[in-house]
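quick one before i forget lol
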Amino acid sequence: MKITLFVPCFVDTFYPQTAMKMVEVFEKLGHTVDFKPELTCCGQPAFNAGYWNESRKVAAKVLDSLKDAEVVVIASGSCGAMLKVFYPELFKDTPRAAEANTLAEKTWEFSQFVVDKLGITDLGGKFPHKVTFHDGCHGLRELGISEAPRKLMANVEGLELVEMSEAKTCCGFGGLFSMKHASIATAMGEVKCDSACATGAEYIISNDGSCLMHVQGLLDRQKRPVKCLHLVEVLTANES
């Protein structure tokens, strides 16, 4: 099929390798990958802040760009939830409600798409390290994603998954939340870091890079050696 990628702005700016690895995965599986360079933000910051009119202006560009897409895949539970769950709410009772609903129906988060839509659980990765997994709030609570990333990791050669006690606890990022309530966000993030480090894992894996950006910043400030990686980078690794 023809897969259109939606690359979140923070991925484009800080973690372009995540998007490139998605392209690698889908092309290896025989699919055609499309990307709309005019796409930038999904409008979530304004939406979360209560500025829905401003958010619609940004989101309308997304509707325009993706109206002809066969399927849309996002390497972010957060932005995925925005398109799939909150766009229908944002455009409810507006002339573009039907378009928002149509886009929501064909939008997928990466791991859920690979496992539940394509029926694939083994991408042939080799990553001989001990890891722990962080469930991002939007992916877990809005999209219901929990098993898909774990099924994929279970087939990565050499990978040892050790679940942390706070796997499903918010890391404190929450986009605007971490800016408006920095001290609370930091405290929540420190709980996540302590829980992850207690497992003895070398890496914290997640399917949401925005959470990892927050957690990695805290780990670096604490001078802890644990590193954060997006799930797709682990699935495409080929370490001996």
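fyi The first strand starts at residue 2 and ends at 6.
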